[in-house]
Amino acid sequence: MIRAFIFDLDGVITDTAEYHFRAWKRLAEDEDLIFTRQDNEALRGVSRRDSLLLLLKGNIYPEGQLQEMMERKNSYYLEFIQDINPNDILPGAIELLQELRSNGYQIALGSASKNARDVLQRLGIEEFFDQISDGYSVEYQKPAPDLFLHAASQLKLSPRVCVVVEDATSGIEAAVAGGFRTIGIGPLERVGIADFVLPDLSGVRLKDILSSL
Ligand code: B16
Ligand code: MG
What is the residue-level pLDDT of the chain in tens, covering all 213 positions? Predict the structure, then answer.
């Protein structure tokens, strides 16, 4: 029996990936590094620190410089997300959240982002979430299962009765490792190991999910 849904944020509820890309791109330009949209795909769902390490392509930098670059990238990102508003919620997300709510399911957020609360607030959908697990909640980020386990334990539920909705390979791997049921959002080559794969949330109804898991 399913009792709760844990939603990823970027790529599932809203598309902040474009703003993350622009912010990393600007940092890369500052530092005379090459960073393409294709490089950005590997950063999907990956923490800020691990994203920076990928961008630096194995080159070693002192910790202080890494911290400064992460802060600079985040200041660019914060500039880009200033105008986020409820129109930026991806199709179908609100309808599904409403249906889950009215059917008594618990809802949590499981996002690697340290800006997740800010983004939820700008989207105007904080009230849907019983619990928020974000980039501050655990030390080890996806693909470690810790973030989703944190969300389940905050909800006081076993992973077996929670469904994780994720768009990143690292996120689905994290959920599988934690013993959750999974819905993958996106192409099969990215989220094919999920129990149920959907291109996006538009038109998705609770009964379709329950019959497919
Ligand atoms: P921040 P998600 C992830 O969000 C993004 O997909 C990823 O691109 C980003 O690096 C990560 O959050 C950390 O974000 O720099 O804001 O702390 O998909 O887990 O909702
Ligand atoms: Mg995501």
Answer: 999 999 999 999 999 999 999 999 999 999 999 999 999 999 999 999 999 999 999 889 999 999 999 999 999 999 999 999 999 999 999 999 999 999 999 999 999 999 999 999 999 999 999 999 999 999 999 999 999 999 999 999 999 999 999 999 999 999 999 999 999 999 999 999 999 999 999 999 999 999 999
- Does 10 qualify as catalytic in the annotation? yes
> Residues with beta carbon < 5 A to ion ligand 2?
8, 10-11, 45, 167-168
Copy the structure tokens of residue 133.
């697990």
Query: Which domains does the chain possess?
Result: 4-14+86-212 (3.40.50.1000), 17-83 (1.10.150.240)
**With the CA atoms of 95, 96, 100 and 101 taken in that order, what torsion angle do they form, in degrees rounded to the nearest 10?**
-40
CB 24 within 8 A of CB 35: yes
Say whether 50 is catalytic. Answer: no
Q: Is the beta carbon of 134 within 6 A of some atom in ligand 1?
A: no
Ligand 1 proximity of 143 Cβ (cutoff 6 Å): no
Distance in angstroms (rounded) separating the CA atoms of residues 180 and 175: 5
Answer whether 9 contacts ligand 1 (Cβ < 6 A): yes
Q: Which two tokens stand for residue 205?
A: 């109804």
For ligand 1, the distance from its centroid to the CA atom of residue 1, given in whole angstroms, is 30
Query: What's the CA-to-centroid distance between 75 and ligand 2, angstroms?
Result: 20
